[in-house]
Amino acid sequence: MLKPQQKIRVGDLLVEKGILSQEQLSLVLDEQKRSGRKFGRTVIDLGFVSEDKLLLEMSSHFALPYIDISRFQFNADITRRLPESLARRYRAIILMEEQDQYFVGFVDPLDILAVDEVQRSLKRKIVAAFVKEQDVLNAIDRIYRRTEQIASIAGELDDELSETDLDLDSLLAESDATEAPVVRLLQNIFEDAVQVAASDIHIEPDEHVLRVRLRIDGELQEQVMKEKRVVSALVSRLKIMSGLDISEKRLPQDGRFNIRILNRSVDVRLSTLPTQYGEAVVMRLLDQSQGLLNLNSLGMTDKIRQHFSNIITRPHGLVLVTGPTGSGKSTTLYAALNTLNAANKKIITAEDPVEYRLPRINQVQINSKIGLDFSRILRTALRQDPDIMLIGEMRDTETTEIALRAAMTGHLVLSTLHTNDAISSAMRLMDMGADSYLVASSIRAVIGQRLVRKVCKNCKVQYTPDAQERAWLKGMGQDPDAQPFYHGEGCHHCSNSGYVGRTGVYELLEFDDNMLDALRQNDTALFTRVAKNSDMYLPMAQCALEFAMAGKTTLSEVFKITASLDETNLGEGG
Q1: Which range among 283-297, 333-347, 459-473, 524-538 shows the weakest confidence by mean pLDDT?
Q2: Matching CATH topology for 10-142 and 295-563?
């Protein structure tokens, strides 16, 4: 490639262009000498010129392109051809491949040594371009993550296992040492997961490979390792951390531990499962450093939030949160507890497990091995003078009846139920054996929820709904052309998915006299009809539509959640 000719210093160039005064240049040079930072970073940090302006001027003067990569769609396979160590050292990233050359973005493409070393590594001609520093760092973190370190350490561990003929004793004996390969491998897997805000880590042996999959924004992303034999060391190490029996490989085991990752305290819930190719492990990550949400930050519509806030401040009654596994029910309950937590309230919880630790609240962990189940905790809790009780889940008839009677006798009871929607929840309680009069006398409201992915703000663009989407909008009473809709094109911020993060989508059913009468009659058809046509029912599809119209999510995400609901009733309710 052509070597940039630095016949004029950058500072002199900016003065010549009238962008910097001589006095400002002197201040920049003094600060650069004091801090040891490069000139460009210093002049930007002092606020004398924007990064865009600086890079445009340098691009023009040195005849090197300036490329905005904030919305760039990277090909990860091509980008990873540059070793991560070089990418991080020189803050460089492959942008694209064109014929026999690579376009490579550099924070400092004037660094001839860096450009030459990258070109030698790639063994091909490169075109260097100016790119913003933070954009490069973000892209490197997203694309490389820790795949190179993980693969390297997995190979090292595989070699050790080969030398010891799969004898784990020596490896486990040194597993408390921070430099042991199995410890470093797990550390990198955890750091990778926390860095990308993964909710779960899956470690799965296959016939010839080991798969490590991370659940990010509800979707699994996979990394395959050829070193399958390392799974035995990984699982044994995790069992030690969880206090499990490392010799038991025939039966599933559950455990938990706390680990500090990237200056965050993370609780890990672990489950093992014997498979035909070895033990599979799934770990749920609970970041204790994030802090608890409140109702304002859950993503509820204003109307649902106001109604729900009023409901949970009532002195007694049963309030249920319903939805499938992984829909955010626990987060909603903790947000409610966070709202209710006060010095004048006695709150007791029965949880399996305790996910987040709350001050001033008496939290009790279920322990089935010693007979400490939900019903036993609830019976004892009622003798502890509680104002509010939280039950992690309504699982059986005994627990349900105790909770309903507690709600009838002056206590606010919060719990979850695994049902498809809010309307079916009350009938589900009766299916579990609860008397209809007891349910009707106790239940106050049910909030149902799902999680949808949020549109990436960095690559968010307006688009025209397709024929199916337009038909659905018309069925919801909306003009498809009356407001814009958005989706993400895909960029390095969202790993080209078009989405970053998730938010809750809710429905709320508040019980009125007509609904309670139908419950007392144990008439499912009547109750369903009355509830769906009541002004006290705020349907989920309406909430999801509002989010799509506001540009928070996409219509395709809305379709995913409404597909599991009764589509003939999506638009009903007030």
Answers
A1: 283-297
A2: no
pTM of the complete model: 0.70
Residue 97 token pair: 């491949």
Distance CA 569, CA 424 (A): 13
DSSP-derived secondary structure for 383-423: GG--SEEEES---SHHHHHHHHHHHHTT-EEEEEE--SSSH
What confidence tens digit (pLDDT) does each residue in 181-193 have?
Answer: 888 889 889 988 8
Fold of 10-142: GMP Synthetase; Chain A, domain 3 (3.30.300)
Identify the DSSP state of 123: T
Residue type, 490: G
At position 412, the amino acid (one-letter code) is L
CA geometry: angle 198, 421, 531, nearest 5 deg: 150
- Residue 566, Cβ neighbours under 10 Å: how many? 15
The architecture that CATH gives domain 147-287 is: 2-Layer Sandwich (3.30)
- Token pair recorded at residue 350: 């029965």
Q: Does domain 295-563 have CATH number 3.40.50.2020?
A: no
Return the number of other C-beta atoms located less than 10 Å from residue 131's C-beta.
27
Contact between 539 and 301 (Cβ < 8 Å): no
In angstroms, rounded to a whole number, what is the distance separating the alpha carbons of residues 421 and 573? 14
User: CA-to-CA distance for 145 and 133, rounded, in angstroms?
Assistant: 17
Print the SS3 string covering 480-543. Answer: CCCCCEEEECCCHHHCCCCEEEEEEEEEEEECCHHHHHHHHCCCHHHHHHHHHCCCCEECHHHH
pLDDT in tens, 93-150: 999 998 889 999 999 999 999 999 999 999 999 999 999 998 998 888 777 766 667 7
Domain boundaries, the chain: 10-142, 147-287, 295-563
CA 515 to centroid of chain Cα atoms: 37
